[in-house]
Structures are given as structure tokens and as C-alpha cells.
Amino acid sequence: MLKFLSRVRIEFNALDPRTASCMEFLAQCNARKAKESNAACQVQVKRRTDDHPPQITVTFVNGVEEVFDATSTPAQTIRNMILEKGQLLETEQMFREAGEAWPVMIPAEELHQSAPGTKPRKAEEKKQ
Fold this sequence. Notes:
Helix 1 packs across helix 3. Helix content is 38%, strand content 20%. The protein has helices spanning 20-30, 32-37, 75-97, 108-111, 123-127, and strands spanning 5-12, 42-47, 55-60, 65-69. It has a four-stranded mixed β-sheet, covered by helices on one side.
């Protein structure tokens, strides 16, 4: 998960009962496997003393920053979102390194063509 991030900032009040997501996400960030995936990722924890709701801010390696409300977003959901966006970043990088344009534009007429090796569905099959 950390391999797609350059910085993680976790903010919470230790006395706030809504910190479960922050604590779980912090544990995931501190896991050996996560740290090994990107040792350069900065993980910052800000312990607050006010009523500000728990918050997780992540900065992707391309500089895009995203803020999550940790009171209503489970840590696993945040992790999954990071992994999905990370896969998009990897795909984009792969296309750029190959000298291809990004995003890939597929002509409309190609979208409706059947793929080689597949049979077009008959009208009767579509109804069932």
C-alpha cells in the first residue's frame, strides 16, 4: 500500500472514541511489509487536543493529495482505495514509458466490435 504514497498524515484526539479507523490504518502503515514496500514514505501522526474529527491524509507519489474522514471510513476501505488508485498510477506510468498516449482513447467504432475468437451473441441468447 505505501509503495504508491509519498506521505501519510494521521490526525486524531486520543480521547475521541471515533479513532478506531486511524489506529487500524496506523497499524497497517507500521507493518513490516508496508514499510519494506516504500521506506521513503513519511508516516506522520498528529495527536490533537481539540474536537477536530479523526482524519487521514495521503499524498500519492504523483503529488495528488486525498483526505479521508476517518470517523465514517473504515481503514480497510481507505487501503482498498489507495490500492485501486495505485494500480491506475502504475498503468499510466507503464503506458508513458512505452511512449503511448495517456489516457488511452478507444475509438467508438472499436468499442462495439466483437473480440477475436468470440462468437457474437444471438438475439435469443440475449433475452435469456
